[in-house]
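Fold Annotation — chain and its backbone

Encoding — discrete vocabulary of local shapes
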Amino acid sequence: MAGVPVERVSSSPEERPDVAELVAEYDEERPARGLTGRWELGVGIAALVIALLVLKQVFDPFSKGNQYYLVVFLGLTLPLVFLAYRPWRSAGDSPGPLDWALALVALLVGLYPVLGGYDAFLDRQGQLSTLDVVAGALLLVLVLEACRRTTGLVLPVVCLVFLAYAYYGGFLPQGWDVAHAGIDFSQIVNALYNDASGFFGTPLDVAATYIVLFTIYGAVLDSSGAGKFFVDISFAAFRNSRTAPGRTAALSGFLLGTVSGSGTATTVSLGAVTWPMLRKAGYPRENAGGLLAASGIGAILSPPTLGAAAFIIAEYLRTSYLDVLLWATVPTLLYYLGIVLAVEADARRFGAKPVAVDSPSAWKLLLRGGYHFLSLGIIVLFLALDIPPFAAVVYATGVAALFALAARWRSRESGFLVAWLRSVADALASGVRGALPVIAVCAAAGIITSTITKTGLGQVLASALVHAARAVSSNPTVVLALTVVFAAVAVGVLGLAVPVTASFIISWVVIGPALADLGVAAPERAMFIFYYAVLSEVTPPTALAAVAAAAITGGAVMKTMWQTWKYTLPAFLVPIAFVLTDNGSALLLQRSAVDAVWVTAVSAIGVAALAVVTGGWLISRAGLPERLLCVPAALLLLYLQPVTIAAGIGFLAVAVVVHLVLRKGRTQDA
């Protein structure tokens, strides 16, 4: 690019913001205590013991069954929440008497079913003793408090509302659809404490068998230096073109997502290293923040790790995790296509400058650290060989740990073996501690799912959603379209208040049946709900990932939120295409290869039309007429029916012609 000034920026960690501090402030999960000394050692040892128990369960399960393991798992992890998380933000970093008391009670009531004879406890199902009810009630309170400490007040309040509905629903007028026979307190405790639909239901099962193993894997991978390698290889991949800074941010976000289960954490880590480059390239603060947030969120929508809710999808649908990865493949490509097109438009609109990065070549980096990709490939390969995901991720964790050992050995540092063992132990403990908020959320989510199951509330709310659509029109196509829009809004609004995992679980049992009643297949409705649950993290007015990005770039928060929404707009509309027509299932690779190819191609054109609307660029700067024409073009193309596709292409063709004509006039005026 002769004649274009090249800005130079170093990839060294100079003057970067404190990643841990920003994550603690803006992540949807509350910050853990900064434990030191004996407190850190004690909690670390306890977490390491739990990690070893989880690994033992993979290859040598408890003979008394999976629910026995879940009781032990919750009984051991719940006390750690009270030691590792503050009761309020102003509390100190050392656990106080209250924390120790709650941890001790949590240990006792959590392990109570197995300490007093597990088989006898199960035999009392439906007829719990007074001591059983007291222990179950205490565990209920402790789960809510653990959830409050790790994620805030909203989800515990939602759980209390559902509990009140379970208890007082019998007092509602029986003519109301939401009225039910009523459940007394002992029955509520029985459903939560001695039933597979309560605390020890599918959400906690997924947390204890999938999520915790993947967080351990991410911690081991990160401790091996993979996070730094992924950023470095992204810097080196694109070099000096003016679109390289934006592309680097997108690729770095995708790769960093493999070692982070949080969109906000990925955004912060990404922003700490790429914002200096984006600033040098000439990106406005708000646009850079939007790009960072969109790239960070995209990481947990993308294979091979995805977000925690993806494991719940596999469990709810009784399918393999590999199937879920395949379903996510095309939507991921379309998501990043939208970001890349926005990057291309931004680079031209802002007159972005090339930025030279002081880093080795991509080939040298691959030769030096390309082994970090192997463990990711192993997960996919083993899943393809029909090895269970919890075993596959353990093998991948072992491979990542061995490569880290080889790297330490190659460096010839003294005491490398001891240092490696210590790093592996720290990573195992860190993985368990990182999963504590999700464990608390999954246990609390059991309160909601149990209430919905026992009262039949889910079907009532689902019917109300469909009836609202039918009140507008009796046309089946219109009813489905309106229900889908209502469902998207409902999931997005719910996600503003509760974490992604809880948002998915609640939406699945409430909104999932409404879509099922209208004939939407399980994979399509599961992925639809999953995407909107995740995208709630970039939805104004909360959009925590965007708030964190604005804190890094110094941009205005609301403007950054809207820029994030611009980058992610295709991701908001593509999931609707899953469920509106039968052809939408091809986006999840549920149809033939031929169908998947043409549907993907049409959807890509639709995403491109959306990029013109939001990015304001076609061949050159696009004016209002072209952008308005691209709105119906995108919507019609994403409906994925022959007639609407033809109409959408027609609108897009007219937009191109109008652009060419107006472009000539604009050039002459200039």
